[in-house]
Amino acid sequence: MRAAPPRGRARRGRAQRWTAVAFLAPLIVYLLLFYAYPLYRNIELSVHDYTPRAFIQGNPEFTGLENYLKILSDDAFLSALRNTALFTLGSIAAQYAIGLALAVFFHRSFRLSAALRAMFLVPWLLPLIVSASTWSWMLNSENGIVNAALRAFGIGQINWLTSPDTSLLAVTIANIWLGVPFNLVILYAGLQNIPADLYEAAGLDGAGAWQRFRHITFPLLRPVSMITLLLGLIYTLKVVDIIWIMTRGGPADASTTLAIWSYREAFGTGQPDFSPAAAVGNLLILIAFAAGLAHVRLQKESA
Amino acid sequence: MRAWRTVVGVVLVGVMLFPVYWMFNVSLTKTSDMRADPPHWFPWDPTFEGYAAAFGQQLPALATSLFIGLGTVALTLAVSLPAGFALAKLRPRGGRTIDFLLLVAQMIPGVVMAMGFYAIYIRLGLLNTVPGLIVADSTLAVPFGVLLFRAFMASIPAEVMAAAQIDGASTWRTFVSIVLPLSRNSVITVSLFAFLWAWSDFIFASTLNRNSDVIPITLGIFRYIGNNTTQWNSIMATAVIASLPAAFLLVLAQRYIAAGVTAGAVKD
User: Which of A191, B80, B248, B251 has its CB 3.0 to 4.6 Å from that of B146, i.e. a possible disulfide?
Assistant: First the structure.
């Protein structure tokens, strides 16, 4: 005979469930209104032909996937995709390498190490407009400090932001600088979780610094490294501010990534064109999502 | 000893923070020296004309940003504190789904959010308004806030809450008089980040408030750059002022930052 649960507890359980819902309600309403609805509007924009007039009157023509097809066959698409790949992969590879080197350097504490490590957070805390305008002036062709320093080594003027050959590199350098602190902090926290006795044992076996790094640090840091790179990828894919402030995607689209393309179509010109902009934005979400799924797959394989 | 590490560390910080030094240096450089060749490495003969211009022209924008930042903090806390508590302690149905949604929410590009908000605001008449910008800016911090509060509140011992409930306190009372005071540090962490992200926001400001007379400081600097590219000391002086909240955070609230970075591990 199965005993029925005491009535009192059942009632209390139900009451508790309703209490939980009540406490969650603001968040649920918030997520629906300010995430789900903008996202829905964005999808809706991308499958209609929203001219500026239709945008205000709200009577656009339904065009299905036409905006997506138009974008994929646009000449600008391949160049934006290439720029996105270069910008994103270049940024996260360099951020990770520099961040890891610094994390290893700071791993053994020394005099002032905590204070110096904290100083590395500065680029990450500054408003992007501040960093971007500072870098713009530093990379200024005639009066920038970077070219002045290069001149001292006999290197001629480089038009960092105004030449199509270097503008993507210039914004990538600024973005690497911005991303190093984040990589440093996460990788440093990861290093703290590697048991110290492993290093002691390796030291007794006569392993050098490089061998310890190669055979202990790097393999044991793998899960942290993967999540750092994934977050870096997702974050870098959607970067708009730094590029827009420094080059506006130019000259001649040379530093136009997918995110910049989307931003410019929607807000960057006098003629807002929201439908293709929304389609490009949704494409970006798909890429980020694919990266997230790939990460989950990789994690399962290595587990 | 290991003194060489300190020396190397100082040099590395010097390299890393050179752009910050340069901003400061340019902010004190005379307009007539701005195009000197080679550039002046140190402001031997400083001028405060840049700061005078910055305060003269950007004070309203600074006040707007301050207001927007505080509003964003209030909205973020109001939404994420009870939600974090529910997820940590009340074991609601669908809690894991919400976790997942919060992670996905942080993946959405800012430009996509901006377009969505734009499309909604244009109908509601919320474009170019401060409340509209506060709501949009809060989306930068709410997922982070919920996840951080949940992680922190999960570590509050169950006995503490059980004791309150035996005394007859309702869940709301327990939340307000037991959980909230214990969560002080995490409230500070989330508030600081919500403020900083709202203060630093450029995407929402440049899309939702671009035709407004009431603009935040990020947009003030952006318009500055567009308008007069010769007055770099004024631009950099404004940039220095706009960096003050970050400097304040680093000096006075560093342990809260460290807590936030490692617990949340995500910045939009």
Answer: B80
CA distances in angstroms from A302 to A33, A223, A250, B142, listed in the order given: 38, 9, 42, 32
Domain residue limits at B72: 24-29+45-264
Domains of chain A and CATH, by start: 88-254 (1.10.3720.10)
Q: Provide the ipTM.
A: 0.88
B115 within some domain: yes
Contact check, Cβ <8 Å, A262/B23: no
Asked if residue B40 belongs to a domain, the reply is no
- pLDDT, average across residues B222-226: 84
Any domain includes B38: no
Chain A residues inside the 8 Å CB shell of B243: 126-127, 130
Work out how many domains chain B is built from and give that number: 1
Q: Is B110 on the interface with A (CB under 8 A)?
A: yes
Cα–Cα distance between A138 and A142 in angstroms, integer?
10
Is B122 a member of any domain? yes
Q: Do B111 and A262 touch (CB under 8 A)?
A: yes
Contact indicator for B108, B268 with CB cutoff of 8 Å: no
Q: Extract the tokens encoding A175.
A: 């973005």
Residue type, A236: T
pLDDT in tens, A18-49: 888 899 999 999 999 989 988 898 898 899 88
Q: Which of A35, A267, A284 sits opposite B206 (nearest CB)?
A: A267
